[in-house]
Write a structure and sequence with these properties.
346 residues; alpha/beta; 58% helix; globular; binds ligand ISJ; chorismate mutase; EC 5.4.99.5; PDH_N; Prephen_DH
Length: 346
């Protein structure tokens, strides 16, 4: 399928790379940011004429204007979809501006430039079909599946309701934590903070317009924020009361039931950890394939003994620092490198 991307910001560019990796031809147009010459459309009419599917990858606040300027150049054989993080407004806009005539569907890819660069998997997409165009939803679903994505269908409202308490609240809490200095360089942090520290990092890296859109364009976000603030005040209040009365009953964490025996518990943790290791190996394989494609474009061979030697040296040093047997860790990485090379076809 020939794809046209309207809007070549951070997401448009990342989507273009994903399409390219999956072997799709795409072209892009953006009046603001520089599209590389090899995939740049001359102008909007030319982009529309050359594409079977058109992706609206502009900030939500700019969707109406972008769609209005695209509309005169669209044909009924094409399909249009947006990739915005909220769905009620954008899906209504697509329906209003494209109507019965131009097939369209709303989508929200649950990944972005940061998670794609880190080769995080699985890639998931929420698809909000227009009742007017069931076949368009099927076409766009097939396109995303061909990129290796899992596709989940939802109504725009159901999508936005879930996003209000997850996406919007995560950004809200992260903003608050950053505002009180939790994102600063700190001399030490406890393990319980590590997961949220990663969230702060990705929120900081996200485009500025995203925060406003998540909060203001999602019809359920304000209610979710109020609910969270009320819940936090109630906890704050009961902490203050407990401090006064010396009690702590209402603050005790739920009873987790009988603890599993030590061996079982250790094995459960080992299984969970190995599962994480396998997920990490999958990401590493993906990154190896990406490096392989980059080397192919540069005309370099897959096997790079110099790079491997320095990798093994660094990993031995990391093992030493962690109090592990350096030789054993080196053997693990030799196996990892062999698997990575063979995934790259060598
Ligand atoms: C991925 C690459 O290709 C090969 C595999 C490597 C790896 O998996 O880390 C490293 C060097 C190469 O022999 C690369 O060059 O970075």
């Amino acid at each position: 399928m020939r794809i046209g991307i309207l809007g070549y910001g951070r997401f448009g560019r990342a989507l273009g790379e994903l399409l390219h990796e999956a072997g799709h031809a795409y072209r892009a147009w953006d009046p603001m940011s520089g599209v590389p010459a090899e995939c740049r459309a001359t102008d909007l009419p030319e982009l529309a004429a050359a594409s079977e599917a058109l992706v609206l990858a502009v900030p939500i606040a700019a969707q109406a204007a972008a769609l209005a300027s695209l509309r005169p150049h669209l044909q009924p054989g094409q399909v249009v979809f947006d990739v915005g993080s909220v769905k009620a407004g954008p899906c209504a806009l697509l329906d209003a501006q494209l109507g019965e005539e131009i097939p369209h569907t709303g989508t929200h890819p649950l990944f972005g430039p940061v998670s794609l660069a880190r080769a995080e998997r699985p890639l998931r997409v929420v698809l909000c079909p227009s009742v007017k165009h069931p076949a368009a939803a099927d076409r766009v679903e097939r396109l995303f599946r061909s990129l290796g994505c899992e596709v989940l269908r939802q109504s725009p409202e159901d999508h936005d309701r879930v996003m209000a308490t997850t996406h919007a609240l995560t950004f809200f809490v992260a903003k608050g934590l950053l505002a009180v200095g939790a994102g600063a360089e700190l001399p030490f942090t406890p393990p319980s903070f590590h997961a949220i520290a990663r969230t702060l990092e990705s929120v900081r890296e996200d485009a500025g317009h995203l925060f406003a859109a998540l909060q203001n364009e999602n019809p359920f976000a304000a209610g979710a924020r109020e609910g969270l603030l009320e819940a936090l005040s109630a906890i704050h209040q009961s902490l203050a009361e407990a401090a006064e009365t010396g009690g702590g009953e209402q603050l005790s964490i739920p009873d987790l039931g009988t603890r599993s025996p030590v061996l079982q518990e250790a094995r459960d943790h080992i299984d969970a950890l190995d599962r994480e290791l396998v997920a990490l190996l999958a990401r590493r394989t993906e990154l190896g394939l990406r490096a392989g494609r980059a080397k192919a474009e540069l005309g370099l061979p897959v096997h790079d003994p110099e790079r491997e030697a320095s990798q093994l040296q660094a990993r031995r040093a990391w093992a030493d620092a962690a109090g592990l047997d350096a030789q054993g860790v080196e053997e693990v990485f030799r196996a990892v490198l062999r698997a990575s090379r063979s995934a790259q076809g060598r």
